[in-house]
Amino acid sequence: MAHVEMIQAMPKIVVSYRRSDSSAMAGRIFDRLVARYGRESVFLDIENIPFGVDFRKHIQTTFQKADILLVIIGLQWMGAAPRGTFRIVEAADPVRIEVETALGRAMPIIPILIDGAKMPPAAELPESLHDFAFLNAIEITTGRDFHIHVDRLIDAIDQMLSTQPDAPVPGTVSSATTSRRPVAPDDTVDSAPLIYATSWSACLLPYLGFPIVVLLVAHHLIVNSFNLDTGYLRAVSLIVPSCFGFLLFWRDGAGSRTAVVLGIALGLVAVAGMAISESLNAGDPILPTTSYEWRENAEYAVSISLCFIVAYMFARGLYQHWVKKRKSFVGR
Q1: Looking at the domain that runs over 3-196, which CATH code has it been given?
Q2: Which residues contact 277 (CB under 8 A, 6 or more apart)?
């Protein structure tokens, strides 16, 4: 199993964001950071405070244990307030208090720009946040470059931590320590679907090998063993690739190019395997001998590929809709 680079002495990273501005993106970034540094090392939603506790003291206590602050800035990071003002200018605004606390402690801060946002000008910020406006920010997009951008963020975090006194030393642990299980609902209120950067080699077995095996087993049972109506095989050939195509994005966040290549490969290899299996069982030629057989094989291959790709696109569209819906909520 692949290994994931980690930090032996785990750092403490606080993610600051405004729910009405960047809730979904904060969840995606949080999941990547947890996969890298561990669940106990990344703080999200630190304002989830027990009743009766002063949230200002809670933030102060949390930041005493923190090594670095990530501030996620979207188009509405300033926070709309009544009478045309911004929430960031309010003394009791949690986002303002988080940034003020980090600046006061001379804590490393990395602004993260999303959705095309720009750093807020110092003139529009409270005086206590003027220094924040001049920090160099990193941009993270929601598209196919998301994982590349987050990798750059992780590199920046590691570099910042390495320059601090008594900085933790990078090490390596097995991915079994950081399993790819979804974050439980109570782990974070606003976590997005768990999405990881995946390599080609990591995609081949779960999204090409597994569905091919399932399709070939189903073909053998339906056609060779029980001689059932081929309608059952058609149904399986629609359902199986659809399930794996959906999971390719929803579970692993792979890019559209990966989905297209895997979908085409799945259709071609699966149909070729079915032809070989049927030939070995019935003694017929492996290659089709009539135009009808060629057309039927082509239809199977195209339908399998399309189901895989369309399900992937559906998962992607569903996630984007989910992100927009989250952004419409008025929260923190």
Answers
A1: 3.40.50.450
A2: 216, 219, 220, 223, 224
Domain edges within the chain:
3-196, 200-324
Q: What is the pLDDT of residue 321?
A: 75
Q: Which residue has the tokens 């081949």?
A: 204
Distance CA 59, CA 50 (A): 12
Q: How confident is the model at residue 144 (pLDDT cuts 50, 70, 90)?
A: confident
- DSSP one-letter string for 288-301: --SHHHHHHHHHHH
Measured between alpha carbons, how far is 265 from 200 in angstroms, rounded to an integer?
Answer: 13
Largest alpha-carbon pair distance within the chain?
A: 83
Distance CA 259, CA 265 (A): 10
- On average, the pLDDT of the chain sits at 81
Do 316 and 258 contact (CB within 8 A), yes or no? no
Half-sphere exposure (CA, 13 Å, Cβ side) for 116?
0
Q: Which residue has the higher pLDDT, 160 or 193?
A: 160
Distance, in Å, from the CA atom of 211 to the CA atom of 206, rounded to the nearest integer, reads 8
Tokens representing 73 are 């800035």
Of 56-70, 165-179, 289-303, 313-327, the one with minimum mean pLDDT is: 165-179
Q: What is the pLDDT of residue 4?
A: 38
Nearest to 263 by CA among 278, 277, 243: 243
**Which residues is 86 bridged to in the sheet?**
80
The residue that leads in pLDDT, 131 or 65, is 131
